[in-house]
Every structure is written in C-alpha cells, then in structure tokens.
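Hi R.,

Here are the chain sequences for the assembly we discussed:
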Amino acid sequence: MEILCLGLSHHTAPVELREKFAIPDGEVGAAAAQLRDAPGVSEAVIVSTCNRVEFYVAAEQAPAGLAAVREFVAARFSAVESGAFFEHATASGVRHLFRVVSGLESMVLGETEILGQVKKAYAAASESGATAKHLNKLFQRAFNVAKDVRTNTNITRGAVSVGSAAVDLAEKIFGKLAHCKVMILGAGETSELTAGALQARGVKSIFVANRNYDRAAALAQKMSGAAIHFDQWQQHFHDVDILIGSTAAPHYVLTTAQLTPIMRTRRDRPLFCIDLAVPRDIEPAVNDLEGVYLYDIDSLQAIADHSMNVRRQELTICEEMIERHAVEFGEWLATDWPKFRATGSEPQQAKTG
Amino acid sequence: MDRLLLAISTFCFLFGFAYTMHALGARVYKTSRLNFFAILSGFLCQTAFLWHRGQTLGRCPLTNRFEVLVFLSWSMVLFYLLIGPAYRLSLLGAFTSPLVFFFQIGALLLVDDVPSKLKLAPNGWLEMHAAISVVAYGAFALAGVAGVMYLAQERQLKTHHIHSIFYHLPPIRDLAVANGRLIIAGFALLTVGLGTGFKLGSMFTHSPLTAWSVGVWVLYGVIAAMGRVHRISPRRVAWLSVTAFSLVLLTLGGLRFVTEKATL
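And here is the predicted structure of the full complex:
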C-alpha cells in the first residue's frame, strides 16, 4: 500500500489560486468519500484550510492513485491547469503530513491551529467511511507526532506577533485577564487588533477614547466596550489595568508627571502600557515608575522576532523527531509494502491540476 | 534507619532540582508531574523520618539542631504542597527543592545528630510551641522563595529582556499574592508559637533565643503591616521577604538555643 499526497499550499500558490480549490468544511467528508471511490484509490482524506488544500490517499499503485486524484481535482474544479500542485509519494508523503500537523509547513512557523484543522478533516473523512486501516494509522500517528513535537521542543514557544506578544506579557503581569480593564487611546487598526487579542483571552471591560468620538463609539460598539470623550480619559484611568496608546498625537499623551500621582493611588495594582503609536504616546520614563510596565511597538516586535528565531532554531530537532516517527511508521507499513523503506522522493510539481 | 529515610528524601529533592535545571537548560520545561512527585516523595520520606524519630524519642523531634533543620525543611515543603497547586506555581517547587536539599544535606553532613543533654519529661504544649514556631519559619522561607521568583520575573518585565524562564515563571500578581499570604501565615503561626511559649513559663525569658525570636516576629510583623496596611509595592514586599529570610538564615545559629536551652 502506498501513501500519496497531492496538494497546493501557500508555499506554491497565491491565495487567488488556493481559494479556487478550497472545499467548504461541510463538504470535505463527502468529497473524501467520493475520492475514495475513484479507481485505484483505497482510502482518502482531504485537508482544506485557507493555506492549503491537500488530498491524502492510500493506493495500491502510486501512478494509478495519483492519476485518480488528478482526475478528481480536474473534475471537481473544472480542470484548472496549475503547476502549483505538489505531489508526495511513499515516505515523502508521510513526512509531509507529519510536518504539516507539527506546524512546520505553516505560514507562521509552529502555529497550532493546523492540528485542529487536520483533526477535523480526518474526522469528517472517517465519518463518511473514506478511511480504513492505513490512513487511520497514519493520521493517528501524525497526531502523536504533533503532540511529541509540541511537548518536547520550543516550536510553539512565545508570541510571534505584536498582538500576541502583548497578550503574553499581560498574562505574565496579571494572570487571568478576565477582571482586567483595558483603555484604548486612539482608534487605530493595530490597537483594535491588540485589544481584540486581549479580549480573546478573557478581557471583558474595554474603554475607547478617541479625538473623533464617533470613531471611538464605533470601535467600542464593535468590541462591546464603552466609548469616552478624549478629554475625559484621565477621569476613567484609575481603574484601568492595560493602556493601549495609538493616537496620532505629535506629543506624549501620558507623561511621568501625570502618571506618578495616579500610581500612588493604585498602590499594588500594576499598570501595563502598550504604546503602539509613532510618534509615541507614552513618555518612556514611565517605565521607571514602580508597577508600570511600558512596551512600545519596537520592544513588542523584538519579542516577537526573538520568539520566531527560537522557533527556527528548533527546526532541526523537529525534523529529527519527525524522521524518527516516519521511520517507525514505515516499519509498520513495510509489513504491507516493503518498498516504503526506500528513501522518499522530494515533492514534485505536478504537470496538471 | 531514620537517617536513611532522610538521605532518600534529600536525593528526591536533588532529583527534582536537577530535573528542573536540566529541563530549563534544554528550554523545554513543562509543568511536570515527575518534578511534583519527586517533591512529594521527598516530603513523604521527611514525614516518615520525623515520625520514626518522634516514636524513638517519645516526643516531637526537635531535640537538636539536626532535627530542627529537617523540621524546617519539612515545613517549607508542606507550604509548597499547600500553596503551589493552589496558585499553579509549579516552578515554586523548582526553587524550593534546592533550598530544602541544601538544608538537609547540610544537616546530614555538617550537623552532629546527638541527642540533647537535657532530659525533661515530654510536654505536649511545649512541643507544640516549638513545632508551630518552626513551621512559621517554613512559611517565611517559602515567602522568600516566592520573593526571589517575583523579583526575577519583574526584572524581565521591566528590562524587556525576556529569557526562556520567563514563560515558566508565574504571573507577578500571583507571586505577590502568594508572597503576602505566606508572610501573614508565618507571622500568625509565629505569634501563636511565641504566645504559647511565653504562656507556658519563663524558660525563654531573658534568653538570647527570646530576643532573637521576638526580633524575627517584629521584623515580619512590620513587613506584614507595610504590605497590608501601608500597601507598599509588591516589589518592595518581595525584597523585604528575601532580605528578612536571609537574615533569619544568617542568624540560624540562634536556633541552637531551641535545642540546648529550651529543654526540649
């Protein structure tokens, strides 16, 4: 039995092309069953996400199996010619799936969302009866590989975006964010994204202050928060735990002189200041005040960059782990198909899609 | 027999410490049951040691400096087991393990385990007084550990130099809460311990131990009051708890009087 993979991803195709081949979540199970019924194909799983569309099949013969997948793709997607498709056969296909579920093939290295997406795709195929012994074993093994890689390496360590870095820092200051109050000064896109990330981690109370009150109200409504007039933000500041500054002001909006008396009244409540504005909204010296933790856009980006470097350094270890798992899976598969022991070929660009 | 139990216990703490350091060094530290069970095993061996020694002596095993050190270590681990899981301070164990290890290895190798020369009839109240007092020092020790963790985490947050340990240390607010509560708990226990001692009789009166114990009580009382009443910053409370326990450690020799003067 051979394990084959044919697909395209953000590495090989732009979004304009990927979206043409996307299969809605509700249809992947039925589509996998349809592919399983194609001549030469024994089992099938289809993974369709915003960054990839991949067809995994188990087939007796690689050429016949790949041809069946190509025909399926051509029929379903009106025979779109594309050199963007890659093909993996034998051990290469197994390694590819292990890399995908481990986040090594993802746009953001080490991201974990893909594992859930592959699990859903497998469950849909399994429920529709498109999988059997070989793909069941392969995907179960793949999920174990993902767990192993995530547990024993730093491939998922740290925040790799400004927003997630801010959230990580907030959690290391306050712990659970459910009771934290956030104030946004300036209704910019970055501040909205950062506040959204905080909200996703449990923040419930958000105030928005903007020189244009209508924009503040619009953003507040979007985030289920409260809008306040910009000249009144200091009156609401005493209860705030996290301040996000992103105004277009050419001067500091919050200075040490303003903050010093406020911090005296806060006693043991820390204040996390996220300054996303350029020019900066918050005087850098406020970081010297006890209980104040100030991060500007550069320092957050530096943390994100550092995390990404850590992840890149882990790649070799991840590859070694994946190789070990691939070899072990190959030993199991070899009982059915001795040729699997041969070294897997590099992915090939398909001639037709 | 009982020293063997203590040796096993010491090894458990060394294992827990070494495992954590290795995991941190390899930058793949995760909250580990292995570490927790190493500490739990060490605690059970400590408890077995103290129980066995207590059975042999027919009293609370606080008759010499060796036993006091072991009892103090036991108290620290007791507080870790009570506080750690409650606040998800898994790394607190990693910071506690080396301190307990050094206490116990010091007790095993450097301190004479000779019975007290003073033979007095067992006195339950007096033993309780001594035990509560030593447990209080265990709380102060763990407060010092939490303080070190707070300062390490706070420094990284302030300087923006994020090291791999940052992701394993708990939030500073949780550490501040744990630190404050441990100080209060230790202070309350020491108050009961000292109060019981004074109420029992005058054997402590005018002794250096009395002055030392009262000094420690006042020191932690002031820290507790500054933290609770005057609401000084958690960072200062952390510094004070580390400094105060360092002072207690430096003057630990004073505990000798517990064994030789306190007639236990």
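Residues 133-152 of chain A form the longest helix (20 residues). Residues 2-157+314-349 of chain A form a domain with the Beta Polymerase; domain 2 fold (CATH 3.30.460.30).

Let me know if anything looks off.

Best,
T.
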